[in-house]
What we know:
Elements: H1 2-15, H2 17-43, E1 48-51, E2 56-59, E3 77-79, E4 107-115, E5 125-130, E6 136-141, E7 144-149, E8 156-159, E9 171-179, E10 197-202, E11 206-207, E12 213-219, E13 223-233, E14 240-247, E15 253-261, E16 265-273, E17 286-293, E18 299-307, E19 312-315, E20 319-322, E21 325-326, E22 329-334, H3 347-360, E23 364-367, H4 374-383, E24 386-390, H5 405-423, E25 429-436, H6 445-460, E26 466-470, H7 479-482, E27 489-492, H8 501-504, E28 510-516, E29 533-534, E30 559-560, H9 567-575, E31 580-586, H10 619-627, E32 633-636, E33 646-653, E34 658-663, E35 666-671, E36 680-685, E37 690-697, E38 700-708, E39 715-721, E40 733-741, E41 754-760, E42 763-769, E43 783-785, E44 790-797, E45 804-810, E46 813-819
Helix pairs in contact: 3-4, 5-6
The protein binds beta-D-galactopyranose.
Beta-D-galactopyranose binds next to loops.
Amino acid sequence: MSMIFFRCxxxxxxxxxxxxxxxxxxxxxxxxxxxxxxxxxxYGQSRKTIDFNDGWRFKLADELQFRRPDFSDQTWQPxxxxxxxxxxxxxxxDFPAGNAGGALPGGTGWYRKTFHIAETDKGRNVxxxxxxxxxxxxxxINGHYLGKHSNGYLSFGYDLTPYLRYGERENAIAVRVDxxxxxxxxxxxxxxxxxxxxxxxxxxxxxxxxETFVTTPVATEEKGTIxxxxxxxxxxxxxxxxxxxxxxxxxxxxAEKTASVKGxxxxxxIDVLRPALWxxxxxxxxxxxxxxxxxxGAEIDRLAYKIGFRTIHFDVNGGFSLNGKHxxxxxxxxxxxxxxxxxxxxxxxxxRQLLIMKDMGAxxxxxxxxxxxxxxxxxxxxxGLLVYNEAYDMWQKRxxxxxxxxxxxxxxxADLQAFIKRDRNHPSVILWSIGNExxxxxxxxxxxxxxxxxxxxKQLDDTRPVTAxxxxxxYDKNFIAQAKALDVLGFNxxxxxxxxxxxxxAGVPLIASETTSGLQTRDVYDPLxxxxxxxxxxxxxxxxxxxxxxxxxxxxxxxxxxxxxSHERAWLEVKKRDFLxxxxxxxxxxxxxxxxxxPFPARSSYYGIVDLAGFPKDVYYMYQSEWTDKDVLHxxxxxxxxxxxxxxxxxxxxxxxxVELFLNGKSLGKARKTDERLHAEWKVPFEAGELKVVKYRNxxxxxETVRRTAGQAAKLQAKVAYERFRTxxxxxxxxxxxxxxxxxGIPVVxxxxxxxxxxxxxxxxxxxxxxxxxxxTGLTSSNRKTYKGKALAVVRKKENAGKGVLRVKSTLGExxxxxxxx
Length: 822
Ligand code: GAL
């Protein structure tokens, strides 16, 4: 050996210093590689998660041979996930989901994908995770059956390791999604693999992601403590080390610790001094990184979590507090579709919805009535929105013929566990709801089921209250409340009963888990009635009997479903009661399905504060004036009427004693809100021209807004929104609003026209909409008629190279819109 060493030194001397250095470097690299390879033999590489959404093929048909690995799917349609096949159709009266389900088709479809796994990944664990597929989903890998999943709103996954082929040999995955038996959901569900799919590679030894529970038992301005509980899968004999590192938002390490671990259970804490707390105004997040290393320092596994230090508390008298400070929950219920995208999840589309809500002043959302995409919770963590996270819309007793009641008995415990484990590490989640308007609240079976499910939740997460959204306001008849297992009780509607609730349900904190159900079509104004109109009027009618022939509902806040009330009334009733922790308005956005008060062709809901396309209805500004500190002044309606009309003019405003209305420069008097009315109002004989509202604070004019009578439509005005909704996801979208305006740029509402959207460059139109609830053109069409002068196009950039262009054609000519680089 020493002889070899001596010869080498002599040889190097003959080469000179520079070459010697090069050779020494090469030897070092070689040794390094050898070491890594050697360690690799022992532990493989650390965790790697890859996007598995590209390269699928789809067929809307059902044959068992599709599961076979050697089946040729070359004629199938190439698709990129997330994918919702229902949304691709035009609306129709005869689909089995009915208009309550969105008047779109279901069926059974198959997805297939072939892929390779490198030889070097041999020995590693590989699992596939589906964010969600609707509905019954069965998966085969290389012909092996992996299982069937029945809850269309929950995530699920399988270990692929035992069945994989490596290197040149191809793997084939086949997924059958059966959404043929309908109706099976309230409301539109979508069909197919409608959320993200990922492949995760880990070492044989790894942390169980679902078993990892990260809490913040101390969250004060002086100190934050993070507690991590997790399980190590397949540990070897020797000890391993767990490194915990906490990074602040600038990427600086603010706390660090290494612990020695033996066995499978890990339970560690780490402190952060003077943490910036997470709240709705400043959603400060830290990043906790968990790194498992072998005794020799080789990386075995790595996981990261977003941490928000915050405390939550519900009080019987005082409502909700966040970080020890009272905070009224200002929430909206959101259903899971994303308008023109249907159920196909897209992070930028979800961010758009959440930011529109946040701009309105909402600080919370209720995921009504199902577990959301986990990316939605990521967004709520980042944006500072509290989440009321809901598991079920029914238990054993059905709401629709083929819904989850069929699977409840067999799966409800495991599904609930999977739901809690999946979502419990999100700081935004503040409440677990085990159900919405569950029928078992009316009979004694509700007691045992409530106890059983509350216990399941508590066992997996003792840091958040468990609740349910109830309708029965008499304790004696409410068996869910009688179980005495819930920490917070939610009540839907029935504001007339609010004052009796603290006595009936003594000792339990309360919230208004669902309110309002006002009905509106954007920019439609019918003459006002003195009292609120209920459409339909009572439980005797399925539909409104004296509705509008064009299936619209007036956007003055004075029409509601008979079980609901106006937006103003509902908010006023919650606002004045401190014992109610907050409000969840039904709903933030219109959604597909449940088009009360009309039959088909109505196919999407009228309940939203914002329409399906994302355009706010007027009442949006009522909330903004009440829920934010921004200077708000909004006047309705538009100013295009006929001579002789007397028009009701309303103004929403805040931070002022009163507002004054001017028509063509002439004052029509000052008006103000009252304790029982959250808008100012006037009756105005129409005269074409300019309607102006001026807002006065301390007697001084501080803000004004105008509506002008429009001339003939002369051009299309387009606005591209994307920057604020970017998420970094390669599938981020552009949202283009097109508005008809006259020569002077005044919006034209009475001259709707067909638009045709085409693209150039690496982009495509993925959806169009106008917010009209009875428009029957499918939402993925490139043709869309404006509604009240507006339409939306949603465009996806296919790749990030080159410029994308969107062209909009109408009888007014063509408008070219350059899409900014992502
Ligand atoms: C509630 C129900 C919601 C929705 C709403 C419409 O009772 O929880 O799912 O149907 O009514 O007003």
